[in-house]
Design goal:
302 residues; alpha/beta; TIM Barrel; eight-stranded parallel barrel; 12 helices
């Protein structure tokens, strides 16, 4: 039985104007997503600006979200890096009570071979009994985890249960879907491609746009998984222009701009990121106003 299907939202980390974590804003964000009927929460992914959070901040944010969630949905914690020994140490020494799974990004900058990736994840599986979601995002890591590598890892290690595929290569995604066992989940790591990936047999999405529009995003994926393609297509095209603009001037700048307009949290990011430019901000506002989603944290169309 696949453990992580449907929609997981890669939560942003709200900040105050003084640069500190905005915990009231984080609480509003978590409640907004839970009320939007998402399937699980993803903490400290790329969208959460994990690269600029201290170890203490990460722990505080995770504990806070666990408390707010109160067991309502599973929580996936992002723990990855390009120092295999350090990732393994972090996993083995962390208190994982309240955590239901680990999202671990493929090592970046080092550009390991496919065998290096296998050895990296083998070490990680030895460090925790929790289910692990592989995360392939070549545009950020500088190397692609090939379909054959994903399938070998899935077959070799029982606690590797899913892959978040953000290669933007539909043929590669289909190769994984075709070759995987029934209990291994294939998740889109790209909001814009989630609809076609689920139509090809994928199991869900780890989403950015879901931060703002959890109900619409969940409805899209559930409709597609249930075979109601007309309804899924409706939600897909309702969101697609907004999705494109979310990434027009960097992530999570785009989604934080939307959350600012929706009065969920502010748009502050940490350097080296900056807020989106005026053109993108204006375009996002126009799209939200046109779609009647602007001031409706739960969305108007569902």
């Amino acid at each position: 039985m696949k453990m992580f299907t449907g929609v997981g939202v890669a939560l942003v980390t709200p900040f105050s104007d003084n640069g500190l974590v905005d915990f009231p804003g984080l609480q509003r964000l978590v409640e907004h997503n839970l009320e939007g009927e998402i399937d699980y929460l993803v903490v400290h992914g790329t969208t959460g600006e994990s690269a600029t959070l201290s170890k203490l901040e990460k722990r505080s944010i995770l504990d806070f979200i666990i408390e707010i969630n109160n067991g309502r949905v599973p929580i996936v914690w992002g723990v990855g890096g390009n120092n295999t020994a350090q990732v393994a140490k972090d996993l083995s020494e962390s208190n994982l009570n309240g955590v239901d799974g680990i999202l671990s990004v493929s090592p970046y900058y080092n550009k390991p071979s496919q065998q290096g990736l296998i050895e990296h994840y083998k070490t990680i599986t030895d460090s925790t009994d929790l289910p692990i979601i592989l995360y392939n995002v070549p545009a950020r890591t500088g190397s692609n985890m090939e379909a054959e590598t994903v399938l070998q890892l899935a077959d070799s290690f029982s606690n590797i249960v899913a892959v978040k595929e953000a290669s933007c290569d539909l043929v590669q995604v289909m190769e994984i879907i075709k070759g995987r066992t029934e209990d291994f989940a294939v998740l889109s790591g790209d909001d814009a491609l989630a609809f076609p990936i689920v139509c090809c047999g994928g199991d869900g999405l780890i989403s950015v746009v879901g931060n703002a529009f959890p109900r619409e995003t969940s409805s899209l994926i559930r409709s597609a998984r249930n075979g109601d393609l007309e309804q899924a297509k409706k939600f897909h095209y309702e969101l697609i222009e907004i999705i494109q603009q979310l990434f027009a001037d960097g992530n999570p700048g785009g989604i934080k701009e939307v959350l600012k307009y929706m009065n969920v949290c502010n748009n502050y990011v940490r350097l080296p990121l900056v807020p989106v430019n005026e053109r993108v901000s204006r375009k996002l506002y126009e799209l939200l106003a046109e779609s009647k989603l602007l001031m409706s944290p739960q969305g108007a169309s569902s």
